[in-house]
TrEMBL record, chains A, B:
Protein name, UniProt field: Metal-dependent carboxypeptidase
Cofactors that this protein relies on: Zn(2+)
E.C. number: 3.4.17.19
Keywords of the record: Carboxypeptidase, Hydrolase, Metal-binding, Metalloprotease, Protease, Zinc
GO MF annotations in UniProt: metal ion binding; metallocarboxypeptidase activity
GO BP, sorted A to Z: proteolysis
InterPro entries: Peptidase_M32_Taq
Highest taxon above the source species: Bacteria
Cofactor note: Binds 1 zinc ion per subunit.
Family membership noted in the UniProt record: Belongs to the peptidase M32 family.
Species in which this protein is naturally found: Deinococcus yavapaiensis KR-236
Length: 498, 498
């Protein structure tokens, strides 16, 4: 057996253990009887620990060193590079630190649940301080060039830099804040009553899934189930799961949730089969992943063309609820812009402000410019500045997201990076192949999917997000295309073209 | 950490890996998208291999040796004993033999599928010869005192001996063959039309599950799903899965299948929580397991008292299908005795003959008294002798079961051991507590379940099947109680009391 074959064999074992653990987790959210939770937690911890032990073996270090010396080409080089990245990250942390972090995360998570229920930031504050302290120490262990935030970012968006994000977000803020203010000033006479009519859940599922099938999600390799929070996971590219949630009195939740996860699913499905059971076999980053989910959810699913094509079928399933509606009226209803407190309920125009706010506060906390005790005040000041709303309580303000309590610091920006990239990619696809835009006007998504597979999906983790972006769009990531998309779409919807 | 704690920690890892693998397998049969099968197979093989590696570690051998020297008492002694059994079995086989066996099993399984489809035993014969050769070599590796068959049996029924089984089966055959002949001679004027009426599947599920809940199967720790072949599996005693299959035109399949698996489930649920994540945490043997499934399926579910109590609810769900029926008529219909070719479709009277036949042929093949080439002839001769039927083809004869092609030799007797034990246990429970029989007459199963938990379930693998049988019933396993049960039940149904 050659070194590369031996490495692949050892990585295959790690991949299988991680896949099994993925199934334990997916099943916990979708199928598992409630009493099983306690032991399931132990099982998940064991699988993670055995996978870590197998991945950080000395033999893998030896093989990596030998292969790096031999300068392999092509996919093998990419595999060695990605494995080295993961290996170094997995082995740079002292065992005591990993244990302290796991313990603190667990405590912080429980403290957050309690603090949120009581809407009392003060009881969570000491845990949040510890989480930021751990993040600083983590950054020191794994190392960074310019800013400790880069070390955190790198787990979610390999190669990204805080400085770049600050610049891109600055441009985005500068260009979309006036747009948002103009929309709010224009007022809104639309009647949104249709959004809260009674849409039976089984028929919502039928419609959501028919569209997902049209996007390319085949039951041959996928399933849709229900969970409290929608997610995508997969145990191989032939074994992809998405979940959604359903509210009979708010159909957008299930539809856009399903199409969002379908975007993630199509990405994982499109990764080259040659990368099976290796660290290359998944999306390049959270940001690139989010570009795919947002593309199908928003750029396709919230487009005028989509609702022109799909409204007749939607109306066929819900004739009474939609008797007074048209494709155009649904298009407007599902694109309502409304500054609000909650990130996960935000529309395309306001969403990124929720992210910028979190990114800026993370930097301030990490650099020590902001004390944890002063966070709620800083949060509310930025909400007022960006969105003109202030939270009456901590639960709907600074305590709304699970991320910080789980140690996910440096994660939030990837949501907006995904938004920006989604438009940049769709523009590139349309320029490259006229069949893409023609297809979108006719409800045929194969040309779009085919371009995405060729230019994004198939690379898996063999390229960095920056490399994928530049190869696919000819440019680094920037805010321009997204700003242009928002301006043109919402000036039209809100009659701002005066 | 003491030695016993360290042993439990190491065994906990193995248990978690096996539980994860159990989930991979359950999910493959119930939920998995079809294209996922190939990689799922690799994942299952990896988990089995990592679990084997962890279980056969030198450290476990050291800990076992130390603990054996220290003579621990109670549950710890049982844990050491069971772990030693498993450890020795897992380490006595040379790696080359394990690999050869896995390869041959895989080939034999595919050959069996093909041979069965073509109903051509000849193409399967060479593989079956190899499987029996491997079984003989396996017995030599693991060792035995009296008969190589004992070494095979021991995997499924620890401590059982071929000689004992031969004796018990002899008694069973001698006493039930005349009964079967009398039933056949008496003729049968019953109209079985109700069995093949249209019973919508969702209502079958409702009824099957309502009864299973009454038996004690709580959704808090269990699920019922659909699979091609019904089975029970669990990933902890808090996480139990049963499956069933449904035929709208044959309701007994789903009802008795569900209750059978519920019996298995109640057993696993009843194992002492103190044995969690150790080798003691499952049923004592296949035979004891089958006693629990048959007890709920047959002794309860096919009893007159059961149908008297449950018929009104059954009729409420299926008013048209059951308009001309009574509890008594359903009781008679689901207890139809009919000699037939297929083991899995056999009734209580004929079932054990299918098993005796297989047991006898396994012994003959293992001892070399019968050549594989002559097996179909021997099979047909025994079928004619015991059941008075002969198979027109190999598919419905010697090729009907999956077991031999999968290397499961020495497995069949456990089905009949379970039948015998089920009656012996129910008689003991009734003698011990009058509330058991009263409960069965009123559709209250708590007294029965409570006795089974106290006398069978809670011990898990901490006692041998023989020990459980003798403690619970005051006697070794014997055919007498079962024979008496059959005679009394079927003489009444078929009017033989003249």
């Amino acid at each position: 057996m050659t070194s590369i074959d031996e490495l692949k064999t050892l990585l295959g074992v790690v991949s299988d253990l991680n896949a099994a653990n993925g199934l334990l987790s997916w099943e916990q959210e979708t199928m598992m009887p409630p009493a099983a939770a306690r032991v399931r937690g132990l099982q998940i911890a064991t699988l993670a620990s055995v996978a870590h032990e197998k991945f950080t073996s000395e033999r893998i270090e030896q093989l990596l060193a030998a292969l790096e010396g031999a300068n392999p080409g092509g996919d093998d080089a990419a595999l060695v590079r990605a494995t080295r990245r993961d290996y170094d990250r997995a082995t740079k942390l002292p065992v005591e630190f990993v244990e302290e972090r796991a313990r603190t995360q667990n405590e912080a998570h429980h403290a957050w649940i309690e603090a949120r229920a009581k809407s009392d930031f003060k009881t969570f504050a000491p845990y949040l301080a510890k989480m930021f302290d751990l993040a600083r120490r983590y950054a020191d262990f794994v190392g960074y060039e310019a800013h400790p935030y880069d070390a955190l970012l790198d787990d979610y968006e390999p190669g990204a830099r805080a400085e770049e994000i600050r610049r891109v977000f600055g441009q985005l803020r500068e260009e979309t804040l006036p747009l948002l203010r103009a929309i709010v000033a224009a007022g809104d006479a639309t009647d949104y009553d249709v959004l809260t009519r009674d849409f039976p859940i089984d028929l919502q599922r039928t419609f959501a899934l028919e569209v997902a099938r049209d996007f390319g999600l085949d039951p041959e390799f996928s399933r849709l189930d229900v969970s409290a929070h929608p997610f995508q996971t997969n145990f191989s590219r032939d074994d992809i799961r998405i979940t959604s949630r359903f509210d009979a009195r708010y159909f957008p939740m299930s539809l856009f949730g399903t199409w969002h996860e379908t975007g993630h699913a199509m990405y994982e499905r499109g990764v080259s089969a040659a990368f099976e059971r290796t660290p290359l076999s998944s999306g390049a980053s959270l940001g690139v992943h989010e570009s795919q989910s947002r593309l199908f959810e928003n750029l396709v699913g919230r487009s005028r063309a989509f609702w022109e094509v799909y409204f007749p079928r939607f109306q066929e399933l819900f004739p009474e609820q939609l008797a007074d509606q048209t494709g155009e009226s649904i298009y407007k209803a599902v694109n309502r812009v409304q500054p609000s407190l909650i990130r996960v309920e935000a529309d395309e125009v306001t969403y990124n402000f929720h992210i910028m706010l979190r990114f800026e506060l993370e930097l301030d906390l990490l650099e020590g410019r902001l004390a944890v005790a002063d966070l709620p005040e800083a949060w509310n000041a930025k909400m007022a500045e960006y969105l003109g709303v202030t939270s009456p309580n901590d639960a709907d303000g600074v305590l709304q997201d699970i991320h910080w309590s789980s140690g996910l610091i440096g994660y939030f920006p990837t949501y907006s990076l995904g938004n920006l990239l989604s438009v940049q990619l769709l523009e590139a696809a349309k320029s490259a192949d006229s069949a893409v835009a023609e297809g979108l006007r006719a409800g045929r998504f194969a040309p779009l999917l085919s371009w995405l597979r060729e230019n994004v999906h198939r690379f898996g983790r063999s390229l960095l997000p920056r490399e994928i972006t530049e190869r696919a769009t000819g440019k680094p990531l920037e805010a321009g295309a997204y700003v242009q998309y928002l301006k043109s779409k919402y000036a039209d919807i809100y009659g701002l073209n005066s």
